[in-house]
Structures are given as structure tokens and as C-alpha cells.
């Protein structure tokens, strides 16, 4: 009871003051509860100390403090440091504190950051950890992963694989709902060969069975933890390039080189969609987002592939067109077969792409053409008719005056520009003759003028 008297007198309790210094309303409720039930004071103090310890641990790992529940709208997704987003502050704590199932050191990442990190898999997250600071850099909830692709890296002497993890709203086509954010796509590279730095939670090395590769190990472990998808790999039954892998002789290539604007990348035609990688932004056209496909600028050696995609949460008005240019003509047949096999609409001859037809040289043997011509004749005015007849008469006179032996020059209706050019040519030739010939030329010109007067 003495404690209650002290509390009612306003004497602060240190543990509660420290725990709820930023939450005065909650602190008041705690004091009120202690005032009504002083026997529970030790319990509230223990809860306050525990809250302070959580706050201290969060501060040491740069974690946001979990806010108390409110009656307001649901908390928006928040970015964690240098990486992808997670749904709530509580999820942020989970992605950092979830126990590790296995991890692989010295993994080279290209997205969302270009650096070497430790790849970690937990029960609910795929995350990365800085190897120097030991801090979690970014992560993706396993249940948010929509597409997982394992692809050979093109144009490398040593065989490597790129793992492309595409979470929801990170395909480059469908944007997250307004006011929210989404995890970025993740791309990391694994060399072909045994896993040299893969470990279980206890620190025991794994993936060292005979013939087991790091690529196969990571695919297996991630497939076991992703609830909504499994890894997709290239399949020659889907598409294989007409040009083999130049840097690894005898090996088939499953990509075609293409440009999006000035950005060079690779197109992979897979069983679940078309990927353009490995530059930012990564684009993945799953079949349910492809509205149509078309070919443009088909030349002798190259052609362009155009994909019109519709966001999953959008309408036809939100359609976007993506053009991939300078694709080798040798791959046209394989790409066209892939598009037809998967029933992707070929809109190469769609109305928007067809050349506009103008009725300039339309045939006049149809009834409509004859009617239009008759109507035009009736509407011709007398002045227009007289002008047309005069022009026709002049054309006939020009044909009668035409002399085939005059080097193609017609007399009669010559243009003023032709006369000026003839005069300039005469003066130029006159300057090149000698002084002794000038008189002879003048005499000839004079005689021609007299002949003209006589006529």
C-alpha cells in the first residue's frame, strides 16, 4: 500500500519512465492500472524492463521501434536500410531476427545492390547480410516470391548461373498499390561447381556430396522454402538460340541479345514467360500479362520484337509497349514458333501498325468509284472545265512541236529556269573562246537574227 501511496503522490517509477518515455498516454494507463491494482506493480515493472531491452536491441541493429496498435489505417510498408521493403515494422524485426536455416558466403549480387554478401535462408525470408558489419542488408518474404528463375550467364568463359528472384510487383510491369512499396527483384550469381562456403545453422558445411553443385543445392533449398513457386530453368523444348554459346564451345545458348533503347541485355524465352535481363530494371513478362506480341523493322539481318503488356491490377488503358531491337534474324524462326506455341497474339498486322491506305491510285472499275467520279464531274464548274480544256489543248500543241532529234529538249513551253541556264552556259562558253573567234560568233548570231526577222 505504501507503493500505491507513492504512486498516487506522483513519484515516478524509473523502469516505466524509461520504457514509455515516447508514449505518455500509454504510460498514464500503466500508472492508472498500478493505482487500481498495486499488487501488479512488479509485473508492470518487469514488462517495462523487457520493453526497454527490446528498444535497446532494436537501436543497436538500426531497427525501427514497433509502434503500439492504433485505431488508424494499417501501417504502410517501410524500407529497411539499403534494401527491399517489408510489410510492417514488426515484419522488419522478423526479417532480421529470424533464425538461419542455411547460408552461403561470398555471393555476388547484381540487384538490388552490386556487392558481395552472405545469402541467408530462414523459415520466412530470403535475406542478405553484410559480411563486414554483419548487418542485414535487404530481404524478401518467401510468400511474396512470384517467379524464381535460374539461368546460365551468357558470354562468360567460365560457366555461371544467375538466380533471378522476382517478388510480387517487381516484374517491371505491375506497380504496387498506391501508397505502398514492394521488395525489389534480387539477382545473384553462383559459379558452376561445388558449394565451397555453404553452411547449416550450426555452422556445419553442406553441399559437399559427390557431384552436388552450389547451383543445385541453392535451388533445392529455396524450392523447399518458397510456398508459391519453384525455380524455372531454360528448356530447349521451349527455345534454344540458333547461335551456340560462343564463349563455351559446344554448349547451347538459351538467350538472344537485344537492345531496349540504348541498353543492351538478353531475352530468355521460358516456360512461364519472357525475361529481359540482367540490367536494371529487370523485366519479366509472364503469360498472363502479355497482351500481344509483334515484329517490326524486319530487315535482312535483324528485326525488332514488340511486347504489349497489361499490368495485373490495371485495365487496357494501362497497357505498356516494350520494344526490343537489333535481334539477330537467325533467331526469328525459333521466336515465332515459341509465340505461336504459347498462343501469344501476333499483332504485327494489327490496325495500329498497318500502313494507311489512301484512295490515290484506287481502281475505278467498281460501282462506288464510278459513282464518285460521276459526282465529281457534275460538281465541276464551268471555269474549271474551261481551264482543264485549255491545259489539254496546250499539252496537245507541245506534243506536236516535240522534236525527237533535239536531245530531249522540247520547244514551246520551256520554263524560265531553263532559259536562264542556257544563257549562263552561253556566257561561260563565250569566256573560254579566244578573242579572234569573238567576231565570228557575233556574225553568226547576227545572221541568225536576220533570218528570224525575215520569217
UniProtKB/TrEMBL annotation:
Composition bias, Acidic residues: 391-410, 417-426, 434-455
All residue ranges annotated as the Histone chaperone RTT106/FACT complex subunit SPT16-like middle domain in the record: 253-349
Signal peptide, first to last residue: none
InterPro entries xref list: PH-like_dom_sf (IPR011993), RTT106/SPT16-like_middle_dom (IPR013719), RTT106/SSRP1_HistChap/FACT (IPR050454)
GO molecular function: histone binding; nucleosome binding
Region of interest called Disordered, as start-end residue ranges on this chain: 62-88, 364-455
Organism domain of life: Eukaryota
One Pfam family matching this protein: Rttp106-like_middle
Cross-referenced PANTHER family: FACT COMPLEX SUBUNIT SSRP1, HISTONE CHAPERONE RTT106
Function as written in the Swiss-Prot or TrEMBL entry: Histones H3 and H4 chaperone involved in the nucleosome formation and heterochromatin silencing. Required for the deposition of H3K56ac-carrying H3-H4 complex onto newly-replicated DNA. Plays a role in the transcriptional regulation of the cell-cycle dependent histone genes by creating a repressive structure at the core histone gene promoter.
Family: Belongs to the RTT106 family.
Quaternary organization: Interacts with histones H3 and H4.
Protein's name in the database: Histone chaperone RTT106/FACT complex subunit SPT16-like middle domain-containing protein
Source species: Penicillium atrosanguineum
